[in-house]
Structures
1.
Amino acid sequence: MDTTEETRRTALDYVDSLERRDWPRWSALLADDVVYEMPQTRERIHGRDGFAQFNVDYPGDWHLAVRRVVADGRYAALWLDVRVAEDRMDACVWLEIGADGTITKVTDYWPDPYEPPAGREHLVERY
Amino acid sequence: MDTTEETRRTALDYVDSLERRDWPRWSALLADDVVYEMPQTRERIHGRDGFAQFNVDYPGDWHLAVRRVVADGRYAALWLDVRVAEDRMDACVWLEIGADGTITKVTDYWPDPYEPPAGREHLVERY
């Protein structure tokens, strides 16, 4: 299996083990010194233990499904379909994989819905 | 050049030609029936002409730089650094490439900053 295919498998395992709350399996995918960033809130967590606690504590009955995984050497991008009770949203997740195959960096974006600006109604349809 | 490398080049050309407002070069990368979607506003544009007009009309002195490109067969994900005057934001762009090498679908996310929820200050640092 080449590096891209290992990265793809790691990215899919990351989501699947989160969805299953299989914390031992999930933690084993991460480097000890993994860095987790949420650029929208400018929050950062250093280290696997804190990142695990963040996920264990995360409120709500959240569920993750992969819409798309794009793997490329030691990088992956995950497009996720996230459901929390009746709400659904999309997430964009960027992964970096270290030389030993563990995840060294995770960057999450949680784009919120918003109303489109006026002036482009003639070009777009709403769905 | 294999499919992934063609996709990578197309993704980088897409951003570079947008940044340069080189509309003929940008349009040539797109399928006639390209679909452009912005899931946050649930807006969709069908076809290259409308998508071109949307970009030509887009207000502000916007500038794009690639933070990361992840290419994988006929899919690419672009992590962009966007500047409009003094403002900066990130964008996550998902591309699909057709059998003829043109871009058939573009999905853009424009994640806005927000304040983090209370209760996780003990786990995170702000940056």
2.
Amino acid sequence: MAKFMDVHSGFVGVTANQLKEAHERDAAIEAEEGAHFERAWLDPESGKVFCLSTGPSKEAIMRIHERAGHPTAEVYEVSVEVA
Amino acid sequence: MAKFMDVHSGFVGVTANQLKEAHERDAAIEAEEGAHFERAWLDPESGKVFCLSTGPSKEAIMRIHERAGHPTAEVYEVSVEVA
């Protein structure tokens, strides 16, 4: 399993409820790809969303987001983390 | 206090130790700005780093990163979060 950060653009003005709904659409199908979406952060001014997930591959993450209706090509495998 | 995600580019091939050192340079001065860097994730292949922080303003986060030697203009205030 690897960890991924993906970036979405164009979510200007999106509300907390709308982000929650989008996240739930990912969560509803994530098991089919062996992935898990941990957290998502939204800047409604710039429209940027950042999603942190685990999964078997970048392509698995992209497929889930595409099927959930919010595709992105910007998926990064973040193999190093500090806290 | 607000929450921020910032993005750095150009960290291709950076190691876990180097990321830790960079993060510690932020941590060493963050209190001067009333900020806190929570976590950082690196994709050493693309060279992207994502930093999650809290602080009083985007400018405070930018000043810390600049003084620590890794400036970025890409700082997003992520006022909405789901988990």
3.
Amino acid sequence: MADASEIMTVPARRGRAQRLTKGQAIKIINVSGTQVCDTWAFNAEDLREFMSMEHMRPTLGTIFPRQGHHLITNRRRPILLFETDTSPGIHDTLIAACDDYRYGLLGCTTYHDNCTDNLAAGMRQIGLTPPETPSPLNLWMNIPVDPEGKTAWGEPVSKPGDYVVLRAEMDCIVALSACPQDILPINGANRQITDIQYQVLA
Amino acid sequence: MADASEIMTVPARRGRAQRLTKGQAIKIINVSGTQVCDTWAFNAEDLREFMSMEHMRPTLGTIFPRQGHHLITNRRRPILLFETDTSPGIHDTLIAACDDYRYGLLGCTTYHDNCTDNLAAGMRQIGLTPPETPSPLNLWMNIPVDPEGKTAWGEPVSKPGDYVVLRAEMDCIVALSACPQDILPINGANRQITDIQYQVLA
């Protein structure tokens, strides 16, 4: 687990989870600038309460959360404040975590690393089991939506070293996955999966 | 439970659930034309597999499912074919089922009927418990999304008697809630909550 100043790594294609006490924050760093980071948050007192994209959208009135927004749970309470964002602010709330079923449909015939399993593995490392796989906040994932509602698989518009700071509004567990999607261009045209770094801030 | 020809009612503000065998279909009728119907589907063999908006969007490539689309589960399999739609095709996949927390935030100080509890009650009537509250397919709910991603609370554009037909692609349970939202205008400017009807088709 990270001290307040230590820089931690979510290795490329892997997941990690981090406890935050209310008032602490997590700085999540897009080292390469092209890496999507699937992000979840669970109430530390009751994992059945978690950050929920479908509950957040009606509260925020947008599909694109931005700096200054309170990110809310399936019980409609703020869990994280989106405090800082050095990137242009393109993040996704529409797309499920990838999973082995998805890679099967994309043509993979053997197991492919995936964010759903990374969430479970990251939580397990700190002795926890997620009650389900909530739809994640996909940091830096660029899913444009056209006026007819059609979605596309964009490349991140962030630059190397861009970061976000999410501040805990309750004691919580934040889980991160350095998304292993290397078939679609969501992690850049080169489809190179890279590390994410994070740091706990007081 | 409905025979193949009997017309069943989901009373205004309430929920019902219906078993379908693979190949059967459910015709869901917007009697008033202004009533939103939150809709879920669960694999009858394993309720942990269910129709999932966040898994459906990347497969369909749109936030607006339309006639002809295969609606898919959190295991990326078709569960319902969106076979017929007599309405202009405006349905929502973005907004969570309403719940008592939501009505509290909207100013209610006592219990308010809600789609989350209606799902549980409808399933309980046929002896089942949903494993969680998936984000629903909100039939006839009109949530416009502007080019910046901002959402609005529109009124239904459907007319009295409009219906959809959803055909089961696996044995499943379909749950319906005649959404009791009477504070926002999603069930029409008059905020009048009305019955939904349904019929099982061979």
4.
Amino acid sequence: MSLDPDIAARLKRGPDGLVPAIVQQYDSGEVLMLAWMDDEALHRTLTTGRATYWSRSRQEYWVKGNTSGHVQHVKAVALDCDGDTVLLKVDQVGAACHTGDRTCFDADALLP
Amino acid sequence: MSLDPDIAARLKRGPDGLVPAIVQQYDSGEVLMLAWMDDEALHRTLTTGRATYWSRSRQEYWVKGNTSGHVQHVKAVALDCDGDTVLLKVDQVGAACHTGDRTCFDADALLP
């Protein structure tokens, strides 16, 4: 099993083989976090319905919520016009952020 | 003029000196696009109220809308928990995408 060749052909990966994935709560529109995917992580996300990323710090696949319980159920996935960014719409169980905040952008406002 | 040292100290840049910036329409919550910023682009975005990026393809600063008229008026800026991603809330004039679509994620749905 691997990523659909039609999708793989459209994907423009960075030098590290990864694309950024923007993760958004599907109904409220909140931007929850940004994570990274390689082809296999995108494949697993599309086929399992559970958001799966590549952890750059741990260098391993990471099924969001497997340890915390803060699962992301995948509702929609889209590629951008350049094929170099993924937008994931999910239903987030609990907090998206490891700090316990609902989103990873709650704690450090630069403006206003 | 350069980026506030307190902010610069919290910013975790990639090997290319850039951080991804997620751009969201401030009222509807639509995710419009993803772009890239270095310290100077973030500084200009925070101080001018106009979204300013670093263009990786053209290797130059890029004030969104300067040629297209599709300006982004900055409403809010936040850093994520790791300091490696920026979330920009803007008021987008016209289309965010160079294709004429409202967002860069309108044309290529992978799921459903």
